Amino acid sequence: METNVPKRRDNKKPLRVKVISLGNAEVGKSCIIKRYCEKRFVPKYLATIGIDYGVTKVQVRDREIKVNIFDMAGHPFFYEVRNEFYKDSQGVLLVYDVGLRDSFDALDSWLGEMKQEMGSQANMDSIVFIVCANKVDLLKRRVVDEGEGRLWAESRGFHYFETSAQSGEGINEMFQAFFSSITDMCENGGKRPVSEVSVGFTKEQADTIRRIRNSKDSWDMLGVKPGATREEVNKAYRKLAVLLHPDKCVAPGSEDAFKAVVNARTSLLKNIK
Ligand code: GTP
Ligand code: MG
């Protein structure tokens, strides 16, 4: 007799998953994959032409996973080639170079391109995202710090890893977390488990910290117009202080943001009669 209850051994079937890599050209997507699959690093830049495809088998707990990896070209020139490969992915490696701010700022547009190409099929809750802050071996040229990267990733429910394809730092840990989360998601009916990337802070807090980091002056930081009154400055300050006070906010970078807000208020009040 047929029943709807899945047989126990069905759970042990090998799982087939599709993952893609996204990020600007030259951030190290192919090298990260090569480091994991082939345990080697190639210093010479060989741009991916359109797409590179590979398969690897991994074991997660008692389950064999067959991973189809679609390594995308980051160069805008290849948009027409890569756009059809977004669909049906269970995992996305979002990569940026910690020495190139543009590559970090571009993460939003990569998500945008992905959503656009997936169209109505876009269900971002059914995809595991891992953010790789790559090239951490190049300490001197680093311009995007860990707090900023982690905040961007974790405020979206994405994992965050610091990696170096050159030294191998973080690569195995990152892929293990990636495949384990994808397996959990597939065994959870295709929904990304939320508890795992439990962030403990709100999107409003994350967005505010980002806005403060990018503000151009003290007025902008407090979110008031130049020439605002003492009352307006104090009101804006109190709102931000409640949101970001270190006792209340555990988001990465909140302490620095809170200090910056205190300083901005002090310097503005000095000059307002
Ligand atoms: P596209 O295929 O054009 O999208 O680029 P990509 O993101 O695949 O970059 P790729 O992996 O080809 O690496 C680009 C360059 O960065 C190469 O010269 C690599 O050797 C170098 N590179 C990649 N990862 C690292 C890293 O972790 N540290 C250092 N120092 N260099 C790296
Ligand atoms: Mg590549």
The CATH C-level name of the largest domain is: Alpha Beta
| Strand elements, count | 6
Helicity level: 25-40%
* Main sheet properties: 6 strands, mixed
The small-molecule ligands in this entry are: guanosine-5'-triphosphate, magnesium ion
Strand content: 15-25%
Tell me the count of domains.
2
Shape: elongated
InterPro entries: DnaJ_domain, J_dom_sf, P-loop_NTPase, Rab, Small_GTP-bd, Small_GTPase
Family: Belongs to the small GTPase superfamily. Rab family.
Organism: Hippocampus comes
Domain J: 217-273
Structural features:
disordered N terminus, Rossmann fold, P-loop_NTPase, binds guanosine-5'-triphosphate, 2 domains, single chain, Helix Hairpins, 273 residues, binds magnesium ion, six-stranded mixed sheet, alpha/beta, GTP-binding, 39% helix, GTPase activity, Rab
Summarize the structure in words.
The chain is of the alpha/beta class. It has 2 domains: 15-188, 3-Layer(aba) Sandwich (Rossmann fold); 203-271, Orthogonal Bundle (Helix Hairpins). Helix content is 39%, strand content 17%. The chain contains 10 helices and 6 strands, in the order E-H-E-E-H-E-H-H-E-H-E-H-H-H-H-H. It has helices at 29-38, 79-82, 101-105, 107-118, 146-154, 171-187, 203-213, 218-222, 230-244, 254-271, and strands at 15-22, 51-60, 63-72, 91-97, 128-134, 159-162. Strands 2-3-1-4-5-6 form a 6-stranded mixed beta sheet, sandwiched between helices. Helix 7 crosses helix 10 and helix 9 packs antiparallel against helix 10. The longest helix is centred in the last third of the chain and has 18 residues, at 254-271. The chain is elongated and about 70 Å long. The N and C termini lie far apart (85 Å). The model is unreliable at 1-9 (pLDDT under 50). The chain binds guanosine-5'-triphosphate (GTP) and magnesium ion. Guanosine-5'-triphosphate (GTP) binds at residues 23, 25-31, 42-48, 73-75, 134-135, 137-138, 164-166.
